[in-house]
Amino acid sequence: MRKTTTMSAGLAFEPTRELARFAEMAAQGKHLAGTANLGHGWRFVDGEPEDVVFDLVHESDPDADYLEYFRAAGWTHVLTTADVHIFKATPGTPPVHTGEQTRREELLGERNRFATWSLAALLVFVAVGFAISRTDWNPWLEMALLFAAFVPVVYTVMPLMGYWYRSRKLA
Fold first, then answer.
1. How do residues 144-171 score in pLDDT, each as one tens digit?
2. In Å, what is the CA distance from 99 to each residue of 96, 102, 105, 154?
3. Is the Cα torsion angle 69, 41, 149, 162 positive or negative in sign?
4. Which of 94, 97, 93 is nearest to 85 (CA)?
5. What are the CA-CA distances from residue 109 to residues 65, 67, 81, 129 (Å)?
6. d(CA 71, CA 122)
7. Would the N or C end of the chain have less CB density within 10 A of its end CB?
């Protein structure tokens, strides 16, 4: 079984584009199987071509009834990564989100979650920067500490911006 990997445009920024890519890959016989490239991409495995559409939901702690709800509506669970659940169905199946209000509520929840984590990451970054300014350590160690403190800022603030932009577009 051959595997194919692709880079992600980011579900926080381009979910429609990502979902369309999943459908195109399925039509070529490449089925979404997981994440790749340290979470920056998607892994596909070869199989029979399918005519399907994809959708996603954000739910931090789904129970069996939650996933059963989607199965009963004609959606098949494909993949969960963090709190994002990706489903597929045959074309014409009613969408996972029946209205803009539910999509907006979901986006606001994600925006608020990433705002909390972004604030924490920024506070840690500022604290590390302040501590480094008050000490006289090896410059390489200082740079390594700043870099280590900056990585969480990127991985929280960037999705926050994406969810913020998309939630404002729905307003």
1. 999 999 999 999 999 899 888 888 887 6
2. 9, 6, 10, 31
3. negative
4. 97
5. 21, 19, 17, 30
6. 40
7. N
